[in-house]
Amino acid sequence: MALIITDECINCDVCEPECPNEAIYQGDSIYEIDPSRCTECVGHFDEPQCQQVCPVDCIPLDPAHMETEDQLMDKYEKLTTLS
């Protein structure tokens, strides 16, 4: 499943540059994650990089976008072949 940034976000700017899929962007009030681009870093890293650097631990799994590891890998492959 994709990740989501919760209202606890403090807009510290550390997550956006860590995302290898450019899924994180500045929203109206906090950073947001485009679920169509989020692979939880599958294909790039062993763990989601945004979660690793977030100082307030506000990037959980998004229950609205459930995906298997295989689906995340398929999304990664599609995103990297478009680049």
TrEMBL record:
GO molecular function: 4 iron, 4 sulfur cluster binding; metal ion binding
GO CC annotation, single: cytoplasm
Keyword Metal-binding: yes
InterPro entries for the chain: 4Fe4S_Fe-S-bd, 4Fe4S_Fe_S_CS, PSI_iron-sulfur_center, YfhL-like
Occurrences of domain 4Fe-4S ferredoxin-type (ranges): 1-29, 31-64
SUPFAM superfamilies associated with the record: 4Fe-4S ferredoxins
The keyword Iron-sulfur is assigned to this record: yes
NCBIfam families (UniProt xref): di_4Fe-4S_YfhL
Protein name per Swiss-Prot or TrEMBL: Ferredoxin
Annotated organism of origin: Zhongshania aliphaticivorans
